[in-house]
Amino acid sequence: MLTGRHIVLGVTGGIAAYKSAHLVRELIRGGAEVQVVMTHAATQFITPLTLSTLSRREVIVEMFPPSPDQPTMQWTKHIDIALWGDVMLVAPASANTIAKIACGMADNFLTTLVLALRCPLVLAPSMDVDMYGNEATQRNIAALRESGCHIIEPESGELASGLHGAGRLPDVDHLVKELAKVLESAHRDFRGKRVLVTAGPTHEAIDPIRYISNRSSGKMGFALAAAAAQRGADVTLISGPVHLQTPLTVRRIDVTTAHEMAAAVEREFPAADLLVMAAAVADFSPAHASATKIKREEQTGDSMTLTLSKVPDILKAIAPSKGKRVVVGFALETDDGVASAQRKLAAKNLDFIVLNNPRDAGAGFGVDTNIVTIIRPDAKPEQLPRAPKIDVAHAILTRAVPLLQ
Ligand SMILES: Cc1cc2nc3c(=O)[nH]c(=O)nc-3n(C[C@H](O)[C@H](O)[C@H](O)COP(=O)(O)O)c2cc1C
Questions:
Q1: Beta-bridge partner residues of 148
Q2: Would you say residue 1 lies in a domain?
Q3: Which of 28-37, 63-72, 238-247, 323-332 is predicted with the least confidence, judged by mean pLDDT?
């Protein structure tokens, strides 16, 4: 799995940086080409000379040449290496670098390179038990996982500080195995494909203060965008209002209403090879949004009537221009799921539809897992087991691949 693969190894300022010498040796021994990049702090723990000798390549620490008059390196090396890599592993990944990557910062060579990556990013956090358990670190790791990074969990045990707990960098053999797994699963089968994904809910205004919406968190759509990007696609994500981080390398268009979502899909669809409509777009919106706040005192009696009108169906609208494009819909049903998904599949000229039921434990809105059934024309429904949304996203994309040929 490692033979001939291009591995970018990021080393940050953690006590476990000494293990990166052994890691480089094992990767080279496995037949990989290894480009090491280090933070300044990492050079306090292990020298670039050691890692460049073992990797047989210049180790990069500096973002800028020492003197503009005497450039010793090409100016766009961070981009060149980002494009060269088949995978990037940051091991050890310090709390500081994890936080910077989670925020999208680019204040040194390593973090700038990460922002330009087109290949999978694997982080192996390693730090003191309390730094690892700290809410901010956990939040950053969760956000990175959500945006498609692979995280190699640290081990528990005795730490350099003498304390016990989680935070130890796993053995080199384990790191190499995990990296090989990522390389194996990182099919670049979407390279050159343009994938359009919609995600999240829409907000339909009642007045300037209130709106009608639904419980969609956007997690499934964001997982699909992350998975397609990991597999080499050029991804555009049209998102309703959500609180999620944009997956690496994904172009994001934010919309609020169903009408805005429809306009964005109609505009982007002609350039797409695959459209996955994971957004929970409103079916109805207030017929007339009030320009000013509707006042309680102005309503007579105990009730108020709100007239809703049907929102134009996005999938029906684009169906005539479908051509060879693959279109995948989502159906969220609480009852009579398979039959209504099959009706939707036919009515909207979809290639397949992904059905889920928010009443199933571990499926639907807000949770990190999903249980879906794939409904295709003229085939038996295929129920997939409960799995993290990123894995469900990969399963959905895998089923779209043969249709894209
Ligand atoms: C002796 C020593 C050991 C350290 N070990 C770690 C560590 O294992 N993990 C970590 O996140 N930070 C560790 N730090 C703190 C980092 O070096 C520090 O946060 C630094 O700013 C990280 O910079 P970088 O992310 O750019 O590499 C250690 C600091 C010292 C002095």
A1: none
A2: no
A3: 63-72
Give the residue from 380, 283, 266 showing the smallest Cα distance to 333: 283
Q: Which two tokens stand for residue 268?
A: 């982007």
Question: Is the Cβ atom of 20 under 6 angstroms away from ligand 1?
Answer: no
State the first-to-last Cα distance of the chain, in angstroms, to the nearest integer: 26
Interval 324-382: pLDDT, tens? 999 999 998 877 788 889 998 988 889 999 998 777 777 777 778 888 999 999 889 99
- Closest by alpha carbon to 239, among 210, 212, 268, 270? 268
CATH code for the domain in which residue 79 is found:
3.40.50.1950
Residue type, 243: H
Does the pTM exceed 0.70? Answer: no
- Domain carrying residue 328: 194-292+303-404
Residue owning the nearest CA to atom 28 of ligand 1: 14
Query: In 3D, which of 267, 264, 279, 260 has the Cα closest to residue 321?
Result: 267
What is the rounded CA–CA span in Å between residue 294 and residue 301? 15
Place of tokens 């922002």: 115
Ligand 1 pocket check for 127: Cβ under 6 Å? yes
Q: Does residue 190 surpass a pLDDT of 80?
A: yes
Predicted local confidence at residue 74, as pLDDT: 62
Residue 181 and residue 198 in one domain = no
Mean pLDDT of the 287-315 span? 91
Establish whether residue 140 lines the binding site of ligand 1, counting it when its CB lies within 6 angstroms of any ligand atom: no
The residue to mutate among 96, 158, 163, having the most atoms of ligand 1 within 8 angstroms of its beta carbon, is: 96
Confidence of residue 219 (pLDDT cuts 50, 70, 90): very high
